[in-house]
Each structure stands twice: as structure tokens, then as C-alpha cells.
UniProtKB/TrEMBL annotation:
This is Sugar ABC transporter permease. Belongs to the binding-protein-dependent transport system permease family. PANTHER family: ABC TRANSPORTER PERMEASE PROTEIN, LACTOSE TRANSPORT SYSTEM PERMEASE PROTEIN LACF. GO terms for biological process: transmembrane transport. It comes from Candidatus Ornithomonoglobus intestinigallinarum. Keywords: Cell membrane, Membrane, Transmembrane, Transmembrane helix, Transport.
Length: 329
């Protein structure tokens, strides 16, 4: 016999939204297993080299004794920070680090955008690629090589500037550049710009490639000059990426290129008034006093990181207050 339904609707199986989300989630994971597998090595390396070293922050609050180890060494609270801030060299390093980075950030932004604009005006693709390669190449040179290139120019005995420029052309006396602290802010600025501007300009050049060509065509029809097109189309289109890059650079304002300030200057003590920065200061303390200065070095590094974090939050808050859409987060 057939069972009568008496007109009743067939039973339905209802699935809750949470169950449906779980099914979709598992399905997405299953479908993207190769991508997650590729993610694992990067996650492990990031965890090992970015998160595990955070354990070392406790060194800043201890008087390290190699016999007792890190965990067994006595706690000293904020004594390392107090000793650090009472050191005159620490304040010199802090001042130099902030001033150098302020100049590098401001002028680097202008030079990078200018270089990108010049590259974008080259219509010949082959010539454009050649110039881009020339601009980028210095970035990939080791600071050791850059240091010897600078030494070839500034060496007192056989340097190009002393022998071929000062003595031959101007008839002036030779200058011991590695003992003249006053000249090095300009030298370091030139070396840093030569090494980094080309690479940074590629970021802005890539952003320019995403600008709608129709905007330039409409501007040309309206009779706008090249300068007006740059002023009213290109620069406003690069505004967000310029703000993001600046905020990221501000986060590193208490950090510095160790190779630039150590290798290029040959770590000359006579240049410390204008070349000593936090990174070289910490390194010099570690090499001079060994484990006895581990606490001071860790305190300097921790202070550097905390101040950089505060600067990123402050810069982003200012940008968010002015224009919320342009903020990094």
C-alpha cells in the first residue's frame, strides 16, 4: 500500500547559517591546500626570526651574567634605561639618527617622485628600461662595495677628489675626509640618495602606470601643459601611495642603515659627532664591553622599537584626522 501524504508538504532539511559557513570554510581550505602549504615555510621563518627573538627583550631589564645565563641573571628593573639616558653619546646618537632620517625621508620622497616622473616621460621603451636599470643597480650593491667606492674618492693619499680635483684643478691642499666630521652629513646624504632613490622611484612609477590615460588625453584637449598635468593629475593620483610610504618610513625614523654609517665612514671615531647613530652606538657598546653591556644594548634597541611604533601610530592618527581615506589603518 502507498502511504498517503494527505496534501502535507515534504519535509525540509534546514541548515543554520553557522553550519553553512563552516562547510564553506572547510571547502575553501580544501580547495586552497597548495596555497596554504606554500604559506607554511614563510610563517615558520617569520615566527623564528620575528617573534621568537622577542624573548630577548627581558635582557633590557637584567644585568646579564654569562655564568647564570639570561634567565638566571638578576633583574635590575629600569636601571639600564637610566644609565643609557645619562650617557652623552646616547643623546648624540639619538639626535643624529632622527635628523638624518628626517632629511632622508623628506628629500628622498621628492627625489624619488621626481625620478619617477622623468622615467615616465621617456617614450622609447628600450631607453626607459635601460635608465630604470641604471637607477636601480646601486640599490643592490653591498654597503661594503659602496664603502670602498667612497674610499676611492675620499682617500687622502690616492683619492680622486684630493688628487684629481682639489690639487690638480683648484691647487688646494689635500683634505683628510675621514677626520673632518663637518663634511659627512653632506657625504652621507649623497651616498644614501644615490643608492636608494632609484629603487624607491619604481614604486611611484608602478603607481603611475595605473593612472587612467584618458585623464591625460582630456587634459591635452583642454590645452593643459605637461607641468599642469603633473600638478593636477599625476601628483594627486600618487597622494595615497606617498602617504603610505612616508608613514612606513616614519616608523623607521629611530632606525638607521648600519652599513651606511659604519662601513662608509670606516667607523672613524673622529666622525662620531656627526655620524654616530643608534645602530652603530649599540654595536660599539657590544664589541667594547661584551656581555657587560648587553643590558644597555638591549635597552637601546627596545627604546628604538617602542619609539618607532609610537611614531607610526602618531603619523597615521594625524593623516586619519586630515583625510580618513588616506590613512594606512
Amino acid at each position: 500500500m502507498k502511504r498517503e501524504n494527505n496534501g502535507a508538504a515534504p519535509a525540509k532539511i534546514y541548515t543554520t547559517g553557522r553550519t553553512l559557513k563552516k562547510r564553506r570554510g572547510f571547502g575553501a581550505v580544501k580547495n586552497n591546500l597548495p596555497l596554504y602549504a606554500m604559506f607554511i615555510p614563510g610563517f615558520i621563518l617569520t615566527f623564528m626570526f620575528a617573534y621568537m627573538p622577542m624573548f630577548g627583550m627581558i635582557i633590557a631589564f637584567k644585568q646579564i651574567n654569562l655564568r647564570d645565563g639570561i634567565l638566571g641573571s638578576p633583574w635590575v628593573g629600569f636601571d639600564n634605561f637610566r644609565m643609557l639616558l645619562r650617557n652623552e653619546n646616547a643623546w648624540t646618537a639619538l639626535r643624529n639618527t632622527v635628523l638624518y632620517n628626517a632629511v632622508f625621508i623628506s628629500t628622498g620622497l621628492v627625489l624619488a617622485v621626481t625620478a619617477a616622473l622623468l622615467l615616465s616621460m621617456i617614450r622609447n621603451k628600450r631607453a626607459s628600461k635601460v635608465y630604470q636599470t641604471i637607477y636601480i643597480m646601486p640599490y643592490f650593491l653591498s654597503m661594503v662595495i659602496v664603502a670602498y667606492l667612497v674610499y676611492a674618492f675620499l682617500n687622502m693619499e690616492s683619492g680622486f677628489i684630493n688628487n684629481s680635483v682639489l690639487s690638480t684643478i683648484f691647487g688646494a691642499e689635500e683634505i683628510n675626509w675621514y677626520a673632518d666630521a663637518g663634511a659627512w652629513p653632506f657625504i652621507l646624504f649623497i651616498v644614501n640618495a644615490w643608492k636608494t632613490v632609484g629603487y624607491n622611484s619604481i614604486v611611484y612609477l608602478a603607481a603611475m602606470a595605473g593612472i587612467d590615460p584618458g585623464l591625460y588625453e582630456a587634459a591635452e584637449i583642454d590645452g593643459a601643459s605637461t607641468w599642469k598635468q603633473i600638478l593636477h593629475i599625476t601628483l594627486p593620483s600618487l597622494r595615497n601611495i606617498m602617504i603610505i610610504m612616508t608613514i612606513l618610513d616614519i616608523g623607521r625614523i629611530f632606525n638607521s642603515d648600519f652599513g651606511l654609517f659604519y662601513n662608509v665612514t670606516m667607523n672613524s671615531g673622529a666622525l662620531y659627532p656627526t655620524t654616530l647613530v643608534i645602530n652603530t652606538y649599540v654595536y660599539n657598546m657590544m664589541t667594547a664591553a661584551g656581555s657587560a653591556s648587553s643590558g644597555l644594548s638591549a635597552a637601546a634597541s627596545m627604546l628604538q622599537s617602542v619609539l618607532g611604533f609610537i611614531m607610526v601610530l602618531s603619523a597615521n592618527a594625524i593623516v586619519r584626522k586630515i583625510d580618513k581615506d588616506s590613512a594606512l589603518f
